[in-house]
Structures are given as C-alpha cells and as structure tokens.
Write a structure and sequence with these properties.
The structure is a single chain. The chain is mainly alpha-helical and 446 residues long. Helix content is 73%, strand content 0%. The protein has 22 helices and no strands. Helix 18 runs antiparallel to helix 20. The radius of gyration is 30 Å and the shape is elongated. The C terminus is likely disordered.
Length: 446
Amino acid sequence: HFMSPEQAASETVDGRSDIYSLGVVGYIALSGRLPFETPNLPALLVKQATEAAPSVNQAAPGLPVALAAAIDRCLARDPQDRFTDGEALAAALAPAVDTRPSLPPPLRSWLVSTNPATLAYFGCTALFSVATVGNLVNIYEMGTFGVTKRMLDVVVLASIAVFPVIPMLGYHLNQARRLFRSGFTLADLRSALDIAERERKEGEALTAKDRVTSGIRALRGATYAAGTWTAITFSLALSNVVHERVLGPWPFVIPILSTVLLAVTCNVLDVPMIPEIIRSRIKPGIRERLWRSRLGSWLAKRLGAPERSRLTGASAFRATEAALGVAAGELYAALPKTYREQLGDLPAIVAALEARAAHARAELEVLGALGAERARREAASAHLAESVAALETIRLDLLRLHANASDLAPLTTLMDAARRLGEDVSRLADAQRELDTQSEGKNDSA
C-alpha cells in the first residue's frame, strides 16, 4: 500500500518514490484511511497503475489548502509531477511570512456592503418614533378621555416605526442567498464575520492604546454633564415645573448648545463616549446578529445554503479552529443514528471549543498589536493551542469511527476532558476580563 506505482511495476526508482510513500503516510495520518482501499493485491496494483489517487480533501474535508495540495502532489502517479526532493516538499509546507489568510472577494464585498436605503429607513423610524412618544405624552396629559383612539394611533405609529426592519432584513437575506448559490456555506459566512471582528478589535486596540489622557477624561466628563443638564431641563419643562415664558429661552438653549459643541468635539477627537462593555454589545449590526443566531441557521437552510463549500479553496481563509469545527460537524452528521444519539453533546462541545479558540486567537492578535507583556501572550497562545488540539483529536476520533471502529470510549473520555478544558478556559477568561475592567476603572479615576 505504501509502494509507489513505478516500484510496483519494477521500473527505475529514485527519491521521488520515497516522496510517494511519505504522501501515503500523510494521507492516512490526516484521514484515517489509505488512498487506495482494495480487497486484494492485484486490484491494488491495477488501481495504482491506472487511476489517480483521490484528493485527501475528499477523505478529510477542512484541511488547510497548502497541506492538502502537498499530499496530493506527493501521490501523483507520474514521478515527474511529484516534489523533486524533501527540501521542495518542506518549502511547500513552510508558512508564509504573512500567515493571515485573505478573504475571498465575494465575502469581503459582502462584509462591506451596505443597504443604500438605510438612511431613509432610519429617518422613517426616527420620525414615527417621535410621533409615537408624542401620542403617549398626550395620553398621559388627557387622562382617560380619548385613550382608546390615542392608543390605536400609538399602535399604528409604532408599527410604522419598526416596519423598516423587514426590508432591511430582506436585504441581508438576499445578499446571503447570492453567496449560498455561489457555493459558500453558512460556516464560511461566520468565519468571515470572525475575521472582520478580529480586525476591528485589533484596529480599535491600536488606536486606543494612547488615547486616554487627563484632558480626554475631562472632555468626556463635561459632555456627560452637559447631556445630563439638558435632559433634566427638558424633564422639568415637560413636567410643567419650569416654563420658557417665565425663564426665557436661554436656560434651554445654553444646555443644548453646550451638549452639541462638546459632542462634536468628542466626535472630531474620536473620544469613546460609550463604555466598552456596552459598546461591545451594541456594535454588532443586523448582519452579524442574524447569521450567528439559530434563526440564521434556520434561514440558511431555507435559502439553500450548501452543507459543504463547492468552491475549490474557498474555505482557505478559515482559522484552524473553524476548519476543524466544520470538519468535525460534517463527520458527526455522517455517523449512524445510534452513534449520534450516544454522542449527543458532541456538537455543543465542538462549538464551545471553537468559540474559545476564536476568543483566544482574537486576544492573542490584539495583545501582539499592543505589545502586551509576554506572560499574557503566552497564556492566550496556550489556551488557543489546547482548544485546537482538543478539536483535532475529536476530528481524528470521528474519522476512526468512520473507519469501522466501534469503541466510543476514547471519544467520550475526550468529551469529558474538553468540558473541563472549556470550564478552565472560561474561568481564566472571566478573571482576565475582570482585571481589565478594574484596570480601566483605575485609569478613569486617576
């Protein structure tokens, strides 16, 4: 099985015959099976002599493109098509200087695409939201008189205010449907969102590194104070405690102008006004919230999203954990029903490990950009390596099950270890976030 076709045919052999044998070793290590599986030796020799070896991607989907291409080249039937020697193979597998893969153009365009009618939708929502609030204020002032009609007006106006959500959602569904029809999967979309989020966080960390100074903190505090002053003034006016005809316009104009001028200054200087813990929750838009949710998974199936990417190398941009997660999910889905029932928790564990690895990878990139202390970078790197190793072991054990192994004990033991690993990583991440929050609070109070 490990003999090159030319050696089996008693032809002249050289180092490229060893390259073929090494390719078979790589094939079985990555997929758990041989390139040619036949019932007897004559059938094997015929296949080796007449057929090209199947791509390793068919037996082990989700592999890095460079690795899969190298294995396939090692198994070329013609020695001329293989690597000339081990050095050439090593060079093909060496990581590039920039190891961060680039997104395919369709996914990059999808990430930056914006609905041209968004501004009109926001204007409609703002207008009818103000009208809704005005009617609610009128109801409060009128008491019980005419409440039924006013409430009907409120319902109609509120419905019109939220109506733009429907065409905005339709826009995103149509954009995703085009990608699905092109051969991209929902996992591809989510991986693209992960990459965009990591790039955004890295950019924010770089720009915010030296941003917080005493002057910036004073400007932010003054803006908060002016906004509070404006809110209190108008609250008193709506409650009829103060009146413009008694005090004149300036008690109302001054807080508004102060708030506007300070807010404009903060905007020009790029001063973050919203705390990070809130900003991180409101930052994701409809696109990210939709395709990361269960509703997005359900809609993707209805839109015809393929289970596997139909484009050669389309998933090369995926991080290792994402590729392993997709491969493990596909292998789990192809198991017999009895196995899937016994391993019912496996998809959730794979998803949790993938999420923790992605978090560690994002943290590692941000820490590297900031030049953070070595200990924190090493801790994030260790968390990433542990999660990826657990995902890889799960994938290999699933491959063994597909290769007619019937013992589930190694996989169930690994699932227990993965649960404990996830709990440890989560506790460490929570502790680090708490330390970061305390550090930010000390800097603000300094």
